[in-house]
Write a structure and sequence with these properties.
The complex is a heterotrimer of chains A (174), B (227) and C (777). By secondary structure, chain B is an alpha/beta fold. In chain B, 34% of the residues lie in helices and 27% in strands. Chain B has one domain: Rossmann fold (3-Layer(aba) Sandwich), CATH 3.40.50.300. With 777 residues, chain C is of the alpha+beta class. Classes of the chains: A mainly alpha (174), B alpha/beta (227), C alpha+beta (777).
């Protein structure tokens, strides 16, 4: 999953300090793998360089870094593109998708559309696998079936997520 | 796509009592195309199928089949259309328990006016292709679920329909049987250039389609453009 | 537990219990009504006896309590009016039951129904006929039924021994004429025929909705009930249904009883209070129906294994065996055949010299054969049916898989029809016997009809003066073309009183109508030679000039009359020959009119049959001259004894037809219920068939076939058994086989039942054909 896009997306909800960003990220997405501070700052500097964020101000007081980051228009466009782009269907996709859904909800975008797009991408791959399966030998069939079952599990999750978007939106914005 | 469209629907609305099953759904399918209609249960998939097939008249909106407005036809005209041009496969309870498998498969052809001999000849052909020729003299209660479903598919295809409507055709089958049935269905449909409207909530079933449409909250969303 | 199931089994269980209770209730009500018939008849007879004038051994003397009563029977538009004239001879006349004040001359007492009829607009002619002042109403105790038309007319014209009889009390001891053996046989068969199907119907009603119940039982087995418990539960459930049915049946019965007073069938009406079931039969019903219910429910469980995971019907039901199904009808035949010819003598009036039990048992066994053979027959025949239209194929296949439930309901119809066929054959055989005696009378009428006329004969006990008045009155009546009336009197041969001749007494003008007499003066006598049929009668002498007769039958010194030497032989006119067998035509001057004993009125009226109401006007004219005169319209012959027998036959026949129809309707109702149940079970399949574009007509036709095939097979079997039973019964009364086509009307009703069942199922079918059935729940 893309940490830079995630942080960028979090900034879209409002300017934040680097520390704030880490806290919010950990709280919302990093349940088992909290973010290092270093990761936040290196990502921010890369985004600054690319003009996707800007420093809104530096707070007075202790600490080496007290910069307050804000997203630029280019950054917003970048988030939008990222969210709209379906992920390559592969196993264990849910982290990225979950992050995308939450960010979409946080930034007031249509999370349902995001899920549909993703589902369509999944199905495209599944269709391909199904075709390969019906044309291939037994080994092909077994391999394809493995992938198909995983993709199907993902898709089911997508369905479930889509059905719960309203409740998720409430939780996320709370 | 609209130019080649065989069956189209626009702005379909249908309510059962206070609940709106369809709330402005659009749909289109081209000749020979296999389109999966997906969505969670209760989303209106089956209602969409019923409206498309002219089984249920929509409250609002239009259904067009080869330029004719199905939604404006009388009940008798729609019945005649279904007999002549459409085929149906459902999840369960669809074979008449008293008739043999052969008689079941021949029934729609006979309803369309063919003689018994001709109808049973065509039905026999399809039973053979669907690998259930050996149970043709059994009654539905005496064959397995998978065999029954194949008989049902043979029945749907025997009248050479232009559109086959399949509503969760593998819903009652295990995955291996289900896949085989789907393979046979799609293969047979492609060979006979029949379009298939495949209602399912299972992605692996939908994966046999060319394209999918998602129904959510009574609205159909064509995802073709996104892929 | 089963009882709780029946009452608290949710909406489905409740509906099932109600259906069963209503079905059983209807059956019970019919049985109770049937059980009330003896009491109804007994009460009618008792009241009929009570109002008859009491007859004593010795002659009734004139006293302060004696009354004279004469007949004043009349008919209005086919409805009989039981009329009597009354005349008090003293200050304290005895009164007939239900009459409080003896009507004086010009007054009358009418029954409530007649009072109502007189007030109607269309009854002006009747009001003209019965124009007395109404001074009272006949109470219920003086009427056979609430709808009876009866009147007592006050009079001062009654002459005891001539047009009236003297009584000093009312009421005769019950001397009920036993029904003729043929009629009794018919009644016995009719009871069996009507009661058996009702029993079958109750058996069917007990099984309403049993398929759903079986599924509930399976669910119970899953939570730990054992097989014995499920049997007990079924028993309990059916007991509750039957018990409720008994209560409902009692209710229906009371309802029907209260309605019965307003209904008039075949000119018969019944007082609700008379409709009381015989206690023994009622007790039998109360005990028998629950027993039957439990028995049927248990036997239905036999072919069924209720397992925890579902209900297993025997996958391939055993083919039905034929041999034991043939046993009961064979036994029945063995019981009936030895009785052949036993009632051959005088089937209409003889004594019933045969064990009723043997006949009833034979009939029951023979008829039960229909119900037993039908399932076998349907299974065999339907099993061979193939192909045909899709609707036919659907129906036939359905019947092949479950012919049992289809035939169960039909077997009731079959018994009723077989019985009705046999009964109709009995009637057809008995009818010609009666018709033969009627034939001669009807001949002239037929001739008259062909000329556009309708003739009516006159009868009564008149005086010479009255005859003239009557003929004048008739000739003045609109629509009458011709009226001839004359007195006739019986003459005994002086030398041998057993030898008789009859004489017509009338003026020359009238005599010219009777014979070609040529010149005629008062005092002349003419002798028409005997007519063909009369020669054979040994007791009739041919009067010749000089033949000596006595004018009164008994007593010495009776006035004598000798045929004068001047009497001429003449030829009678054909019309007179048809109406009168008088061997002497005398002018009043030739014979002492006062000396004539018990003369009777003879004559005829020719009416323009095209005129409306002419019959009623003629009746009025005759009635107003003397209520005791009657007029026999050949269009409906009224020869007393014979026509009564014919009437009884007709009403019993119509009664049986009505009963059979009612039973068929009852069974039709149960077929509708099971058809609806079956359709409900198949709603998903129906929806799928509709999706395929199946025409409504196809499915409707399939329902029609599904009802029609078993019913038609049943009717066919019923016709065969009916013929068989009819043949056996006809042998008993020694009549040749007749009435082959007698099954046609009742078969028509059967066809009607098929139509009704199909039509009644169609709305449900249309509703179930809506695509809602496709929606998965």
């Amino acid at each position: 999953m893309s940490i830079s896009h995630t942080l960028l997306g979090l900034l879209e909800t409002g300017p934040r300090h680097g520390y704030d960003l880490k806290q919010t990220f950990d709280q919302k997405f990093g349940h088992d793998r909290p973010l290092h501070y270093g990761q936040v700052y290196s990502t921010m500097s890369r985004l600054l360089k690319n003009g996707l964020v800007e420093v809104e101000g530096i707070e007075p007081g202790g600490g080496p870094e007290r910069k307050r980051y804000a997203i630029t228009d280019a950054g917003i466009t970048d988030v939008a593109q990222w969210l709209a782009r379906p992920e390559k269907p592969e196993p264990y996709l849910q982290n990225t998708l979950y992050t995308k859904v939450v960010l979409a909800l946080l930034t007031g975008r249509d999370a349902g559309e995001l899920l549909d797009t993703q589902r369509s991408e999944h199905l495209r791959l599944m269709r391909e696998l199904t075709r390969r399966k019906t044309e291939g030998d037994l080994a092909d069939q077994l391999i394809c079936d493995h992938a198909l079952f995983h993709l199907e599990a993902d898709l089911r999750w997508l369905e479930t997520a889509a059905a719960r978007l309203d409740r998720l939106a409430e939780a996320v914005r709370a | 796509m609209t130019a080649a469209a065989l069956l189209t629907a626009e702005g379909l609305r249908k309510s059962y009592g206070a609940t709106a099953a369809l709330d402005g759904a659009d749909f289109s399918i081209a000749a020979g195309e296999i389109v999966a209609v997906m969505g969670p249960s209760g989303s209106g998939k089956s209602t969409l199928l019923h409206c498309l097939a002219g089984i249920v008249p929509p409250d609002a909106g239009t259904v067009r089949y080869r330029g004719r407005e199905v939604s404006a036809m009388s009940d008798a005209q729609r019945s005649a259309l279904r007999r002549a041009d459409f085929g149906f496969v459902f999840q369960f309870g669809q074979l008449v328990p008293e008739l043999t498998c052969l008689e079941n498969a021949a029934l729609p052809v006979r309803l369309a006016g063919a003689s018994r001999k001709e109808a049973e000849g065509r039905a026999r052909e399809w039973l053979r292709r669907l690998e259930v020729d050996d149970v043709r003299h059994h009654r539905p209660g005496q064959v397995s679920g998978g065999q029954g479903q194949r008989v049902a598919i043979a029945r749907a295809l025997a009248p050479s329909p232009r559109v086959v409507f399949a509503d969760e055709p593998t819903g009652a089958l295990d995955s291996l049987n289900g896949e085989r049935v789907l393979e046979l269905l799609t293969e047979a449909a492609r060979e006979s250039r029949a379009a298939v409207v495949l209602v399912t909530h299972e992605a692996r079933v939908a994966a046999y389609s060319d394209r999918e449409v998602v129904v959510r909250d009574g609205r159909a969303r064509d995802l073709a453009g996104a892929s | 537990m089963g009882a709780r199931f029946a009452l608290a089994g949710g909406r489905q269980g409740w509906i099932r219990t109600v259906l069963t209770a209503v079905g059983v209730g209807l059956g019970v009500a019919v049985l109770l009504l049937a059980a009330s018939v003896p009491h109804v008849l007994q009460q009618r007879d008792a009241r009929g006896d009570a109002r008859s004038g009491g007859v004593s051994e010795e002659e009734v003397k004139r006293s302060s309590t004696s009354v004279l009563m004469g007949s004043a029977f009349t008919t209005f538009h086919g409805r009989d009016i039981e009329g009597h004239t009354l005349q008090a001879e003293g200050k304290h006349p005895k009164l007939p039951p239900g009459v409080e004040v003896l009507p004086g001359p010009g007054e009358m007492v009418v029954s409530p129904a007649l009072g109502k009829l007189l007030d109607q607009d269309g009854s002006r002619e009747l009001a003209h006929r019965l124009d007395g002042r109404v001074v009272g109403t006949i109470g219920d105790e003086g009427l056979l039924g609430p709808g009876e038309l009866a009147v007592y007319l006050g009079s001062d014209q009654l002459r005891p021994g001539e047009n009236a009889q003297r009584f000093d009390r009312f009421g005769v001891p019950s001397d009920k004429e036993p029904l003729g053996p043929a009629l009794l046989l018919i009644v016995v068969v009719a009871c069996v025929v009507l009661v058996l199907p009702v029993a079958v119907f109750i058996g069917t009603a007990v099984r309403f909705g049993s398929e759903r119940r079986d599924q509930r039982l399976a669910a119970l087995r899953l939570v730990g009930a054992d097989a014995a418990m499920t049997h007990r539960m079924v028993a309990g459930e059916s007991l509750v249904g039957a018990g409720l049915g008994l209560l409902l049946g009692g209710g229906f019965f009371l309802l029907g009883r209260s309605l019965v007073g307003h209904i008039r069938v075949f000119d018969l009406s019944v007082f609700p209070s008379d409709v009381t079931p015989a206690p023994l039969i009622a007790a039998l019903i109360v005990v028998g129906v629950p027993v039957l219910a439990v028995g049927v429910a248990q036997s239905a469980m036999r072919a069924l294994a209720v397992e925890p995971l579902g209900v297993l019907r025997e996958a391939v039901p055993r083919p039905r065996r034929l041999w034991w199904r043939l046993l009961p009808p064979a036994c029945g035949l063995l019981l009936l055949l030895p009785l052949s010819g036993r009632l051959a003598d005088a089937p209409l009036t003889g004594r019933f010299a045969v064990s009723k039990t043997q006949i009833s048992a034979g009939v029951v066994l023979l008829l039960s054969g229909v119900a037993l053979l039908l399932p076998w027959l349907v299974e065999r025949l339907v099993g061979r049916l193939r192909g045909g239209l899709p609707s036919w194929q659907l129906a036939v296949r359905r019947l092949q898989l479950s012919s049992g439930s289809a035939t169960r309901a039909v077997s009731g119809i079959t018994i009723a029809v077989a019985g009705a066929v046999a009964l109709q054959m009995l009637f057809s055989a008995a009818d010609p016997a009666a018709a033969g005696e009627r034939g001669e009378r009807e001949k002239p009428a037929a001739e008259a009809e062909s000329h556009g006329w309708r003739d009516a004969q006159l009868r009564g006990a008149p005086t010479q003066h009255q005859v003239g008045t009557l003929v004048d009155a008739l000739r003045r009546t609109e629509g009458v073309r011709d009226a001839v009336g004359f007195l006739e009197v019986s003459l005994s041969l002086k030398s041998d009183p057993a030898q008789m001749a009859s004489a017509a007494v009338a003026d020359c003008a009238t005599l010219r109508r009777l014979a070609r007499i040529g010149s005629c003066r008062d005092g002349d006598v003419f002798l028409p030679p005997p007519q063909d049929g009369d020669e054979a009668d040994e007791d009739v002498v041919t009067p010749k000039p000089g033949t000596r007769f006595t004018l009164r039958e008994s007593g010495k010194g009776a006035p004598e009359w000798t045929v004068p030497a001047s009497a001429r032989e003449v030829r009678a006119t054909p019309r007179a020959a048809a109406e009168s067998s008088a061997g002497v035509l005398a002018t009043p001057g030739a014979i002492d009119a006062d000396a004539l004993e018990l003369p009777w009125l003879n004559g005829w009226v020719r009416m323009d049959k095209g005129r409306p109401e002419v019959t009623e006007r003629v009746r009025s004219a005759v009635f107003r001259v003397d209520p005791g005169f009657s007029i026999a319209d050949p269009a409906d012959p009224e020869d007393e004894v014979l026509s009564k027998a014919v009437d009884t036959y007709d009403s019993v026949r119509r009664g049986i037809f009505a009963g059979a129809t009612a039973v068929l309707l009852l069974i039709g109702a149960s077929m509708i219920v099971s058809m609806l149940e079956q359709l409900r079970e198949r709603r998903r399949q129906l929806a799928v068939l509709v999706a395929f574009g199946t025409r409504r007509a196809t499915l409707g036709a399939s329902v029609l076939w599904q009802t029609a095939v078993p019913v038609l097979l049943g009717l066919g079997l019923a016709a065969v058994f009916g013929w068989g039973l009819g043949w056996v019964l006809l042998r008993i009364i020694g009549e040749p086989m007749a009435g082959w086509t007698s099954f046609v009307p009742i078969a028509g009703v059967g066809a009607g039942v098929i139509a009704v069942v199909t039509l009644a199922s169609l709305p449900a079918l249309w509703r179930l054909m809506r695509p809602d059935g496709l929606r998965t729940e």
